[in-house]
Amino acid sequence: MPTHIKEIANELAHLQQPVEFEGKFRLLPAERLPELQSPGTLAIAAASLKGNNSLFALICQKEAAPRFSMIRLMSRVTCPVMMTPVGSGTVIFPEDNVRRFVLVYERPSGTRLIPEAGHLVPKMDEETIINGFIHNLLPALRELSSRTLMHRAIRPENIFVASDGRAMLGECLSTPAAYAQPVLYEPIDSGMASPSGRGEGGVLDDFYSFGVLLAEVAMGGSLLKGKSDEEIIEAKIKLGSYGALVGQTRVPLKLMEPLRGLLSDDPYERWAMPDIEMWANGRHLSPKQVPLPPKAVRSISFAGKDYLTAPMLANAMRLNWSESKKLISSDHLDSWVRRALSNEDMGDLIVLAERTSSALASTGSGDDRAVSASIMALDPAAPIIYKDVAVRVDAIAQAIALEFFEPGKVEQFLDVIRMKLSQAWVTSQTRTKPEFIAIIKQIEHLAQNVKSMVPGYGMERAVYAGNEGWPCMSPLVGDHYVDDIKNLLPALENMVASGRIEGAPVDRHILAFAMNNMRGNFDALLKRFEDPFDRDVYNGASLRILADMQKQFGPPNLPALSAHMANLLIDSVENFHNTAFRKQLREAVENATTEGKLTILQSILDNSQIKDQDQTGFDQAQMIFSNLEAQATWLEQGGLVSNENVQLVSEKTSAVISGLCSSLALVGMTIAWVF
């Protein structure tokens, strides 16, 4: 099971009280339903407020978040042989006031084909497989195919079988696409990718999984039992999926055609909906046998083994990265491809990869990129491989989100984006697909987000920009499932009120989540977060962003958060010079804190205009004080009665008196002349 899927039943044992959800349902956490639990969820009873009690709910975890965009699409599907949600969203449980994500479904009929992963799949007869599985599940596959929706969770423990043998597809939305799928049930390229990097894929991935399911119930037991994931992948590459899974085993003759068609490793030759419908209606088809990769006339030795085909070598290079760099630095690979495989085009791609390595030598990552590009040349169908990263081209954003806190992974994903390995992968494909255009646009969008590493951008922004509805991953929100920015401040309010936040309740994840959802240009403000050690500036900027968030999304009252921010910034009040002003500000801060108004608090504590006015007044007061102090010193030193001052005053007095006399004489003469 993938790393980020954990059992949460014990963690949520304290949830007991019923709670209403969406005004339609009542969730009953005291009634546990382990038989309906999906990986990483807690299944509880649920009831409709209109009286329908045949419901259950899955409480999901945010470390492996549900498929948000697919939930809305799947909820519009009505299909009796496939579980689709009748309700979804976040709800606060009263015991701990924590917001969690919940999916509500109708209870399926029947029981799981196997109780959990690892159990042997029961062998079924031909009639049960054809009627109970193929014919009965065709409506679900048809519905998914017509809407271009991907189930990505077709596996034995997610199939419910009624007493009459009719099968039903289980839910597929509680974890990321294909995240809990066994390697056995994934096409070769998806199996090579890490669980986090499989992505939504395409409808043909579901048909492949369906083919594996049919093979398992036809033969019973567990296919390739006892083999590791890497041994399963190697067997599929070497023998083809049909050869590796079915081989020489006898299967019912009627099932050979659909198994060959559904297990084709070439997506262009794999059976899709029209093919299986034609077969179900009695028309016999002859699935094209996909040829195995061409063998070289001589083997190449690598990491202690000999290899005769390019895909087998590429797979070995994926697992032996250090050895791969040594192979690239020599001429052996290019020589083997051109002479033993007689493939000049592949050789040219490998040479291009080596030249790129030389161009990037100064960055220290040239050799790593050369290995990645060489693997693409050897096996274009493989996912993007780079060091410890193995990801399908359309799943990079999902993989970043799931593996963000894994040591070293963020840096590797950043290399994948900056080195344009996605574009290199598309270029290496022998066939183009229309969806490549959308994929390249998505990668370019991610590249724009990581172009700047200022808080609010970077790899954190890539998580939320590339994954619609992904919950905020900041540890500052604790266990709260915050997938809507309207719920971010209430979550922080709860965390502050419970004493779980000491400093500013803003980090890079909260900034990235906010910037991805808020209106306005905050680039100038984000620069104030670049130095986290300048606490006054950082705290002031935090208050500003939180106040803008409250203004745009509410709620109107945040008493705990306001008091916390006031406490962080109250020292700034003491930095004001005017004593009366400080008193007024303290009173204003107390009032704003009581009312829970971050906007008012911000206008007081992080207002540059008020600070400028105070500084201007202080500068003027300093100037006046300096003048008065100089005059007092002058008087104390006898300046008033000094010879210089007496002479200066006498001269000024004489000048004034003489001027006055002259003026009086002039006035007198004027009067005499007139009269």
What does this structure look like?
The chain has 675 residues and is an alpha+beta fold. It folds into 5 domains: 19-109, Phosphorylase Kinase, domain 1 (2-Layer Sandwich); 112-280, Transferase(Phosphotransferase) domain 1 (Transferase(Phosphotransferase), domain 1, Orthogonal Bundle); 300-462, no CATH class; 475-606, no CATH class; 638-675. Helix content is 49%, strand content 9%. It is built from 28 helices and 13 strands. A 6-stranded antiparallel beta sheet has the order 1-2-3-4-6-5, with no helix packed on it. Strands 7-8-9 form a 3-stranded antiparallel beta sheet. Strands 10-11 form a two-stranded antiparallel ribbon. α10 (321-329) crosses α13, α17 (435-451) packs antiparallel against α18 (458-466) and α19 crosses α23 (559-569). The longest helix has 32 residues, at 643-674. 43% of the residues are buried.
Q: Quick summary of this structure?
A:
This protein is an alpha+beta fold.
